[in-house]
Design a protein that fits this description.
Length: about 450
């Protein structure tokens, strides 16, 4: 019989698990919205109104300041602009995981690192074995990514029986997948690099460091340096969304000023505010000063990386990612069928690489790592659970779509790659749900929390 948690133990458990639960809840819910946006795009692109779908994303949009004007298609601002915010949130999550998460300790990081590397290398090899056209082989990195929102959403559909250790493993693996994808984009899908643009981007990063040195805590103050970094990378020929990753990795993962100093400041401000109210003071200026100090202390008590991620995460999950799906998942299946000869084995190559290569690579790498005693499986997790994570990790949607745009200039190849990613993600989700349902009976229900 499970013993109820003591109040102290319950408090500690809540402090540790609530941020994770909050993150997973947003990802799971956003996966449903993301799926709806992808289905809508696919239906729209194959409807009698398909022309309006293409016209929408090619609408010019921009801004002007005096004689200086910028105008690009709407698709550009989504893929290169809004997705920078997506990469910023990814960079913040990586920063937090490195500081105090699954990647903070070498022993703890060994398992998801080995699993993720297996899940990157094996799909790439399967793709290269099946696709021999040099122009199409550029897409070897398309099936290497995992979509966190879709993957967590599928795992959430299996209910509360799924061990939290398995959820953490999937999340850590997906984060490392993001790191691998970011490195691949930076090294493989970047053309000639312009020195002037790099100098501009370096100047923007220098401004960020200067603001941090001066102790500037307000996140909006970093928008201008971030824009300079983005423009510099764009001018240098490096994908500008990587500016988000750089800024995320540079964001402090510890509270500014130290927790003890913040506590003293907040306590003194609250006591001053209380004393003024007890004396009957009603001057707004006199009352606002300690009230502002309380708000500043409350803000600074949370690490900037956590604070910014918490603020941006819902906007990215329910805004940026569904909009990206709506703009990129629309594939004209009829037109693609007529051009099937031009893309050859591209579609089956991506599908097999994601659906078969992901679980195979993750399970084999994990088994080898455990066998060599480089890591150990978490309590309550066996290789069947790792296989479930591997199947679900075959859902590559967002990042795979993004890499496909970088890999293929030919419209037919890009359309085939998009359709392959959609098909593979759907198959991986169905296989993961079927396998998970079969395993549910082996997982006990989590203990209920009893009131003290």
């Amino acid at each position: 019989m499970n013993r109820p948690l003591t109040p102290a133990a319950a408090s500690i458990a809540d402090r540790v698990l609530n941020p994770l639960k909050h993150f997973l809840h947003i990802e799971a819910a956003s996966g449903i919205v993301l799926l709806g946006a992808a289905v809508l795009a696919l239906l729209w692109a194959n409807s009698p109104w398909a022309g309006s779908y293409e016209q929408l994303w090619h609408l010019p949009a921009g801004f002007s300041l005096g004689g200086w004007a910028v105008s690009r298609p709407l698709h550009f601002w989504i893929d290169e602009g809004l997705m920078t915010v997506f990469f910023l949130v990814a960079g913040l999550e990586i920063r937090r995981e490195i500081h105090d998460g699954a990647l903070a300790d070498r022993r703890r990081a060994a398992l998801p690192l080995a699993a993720a590397l297996g899940g990157v290398v094996t799909p790439a090899l399967i793709y290269l074995l099946l696709v021999h056209d040099p122009a199409l082989r550029q897409g070897w990195a398309v099936p290497t990514a995992t979509d966190i929102a879709f993957a967590v959403g599928v795992l959430a559909l299996l209910g509360p029986r799924v061990p939290v250790e398995l959820r953490v493993l999937l999340l850590a693996l997906a984060v490392i997948d993001d790191i691998a994808a970011i490195v691949i984009i930076a090294l493989y899908y970047t053309g000639g690099v312009g020195a002037g643009g790099l100098l501009l981007a370096g100047g923007g990063l220098g401004l960020v460091l200067l603001f941090q040195h001066l102790g500037v805590p307000a996140a909006p103050a970093y928008v201008l340096p971030g824009a300079v970094v983005w423009l510099g990378l764009l001018a240098a020929g490096v994908h500008p969304t990587l500016a988000g990753v750089l800024l995320g990795l540079m964001t402090p993962a510890v509270p500014l000023g130290g927790s003890e100093g913040l506590l003293r400041r907040a306590t003194a401000a609250i006591e001053e505010l209380g004393a003024r109210l007890r004396r009957g003071e009603r001057d707004p200026e006199e009352l606002l000063r300690p009230a502002r100090e309380v708000r500043r202390s409350q803000r600074d008590a949370v690490a900037p990386a956590a604070r910014v991620q918490d603020a941006l995460h819902p906007w990215v999950a329910f805004g940026v990612m569904p909009l990206f799906a709506l703009a990129n998942a629309g594939v004209d299946v009829g037109a693609l069928a007529q051009q099937s000869g031009a893309v050859g084995p591209l579609l089956p190559g991506i599908v097999l690489a994601l659906v078969l290569g992901k679980p195979l690579g993750i399970v084999l790498a994990t088994a080898a790592c455990v066998r060599l005693r480089l890591c150990e499986l978490p309590a309550g997790v066996n290789l069947r659970g790792v296989a479930l994570v591997g199947c679900i990790a075959g859902i590559g949607f967002t990042m795979s779509m993004f890499v496909a745009h970088l890999a293929f200039a030919d419209p037919a190849a890009l359309a085939a790659a998009k359709l392959a990613v959609l098909m593979a993600s759907a198959l991986a989700a169905l296989i993961g749900l079927s396998l998970g349902r079969a395993m549910l009976r082996a997982w006990p229900l989590p203990p209920r929390r009893h009131s003290p």
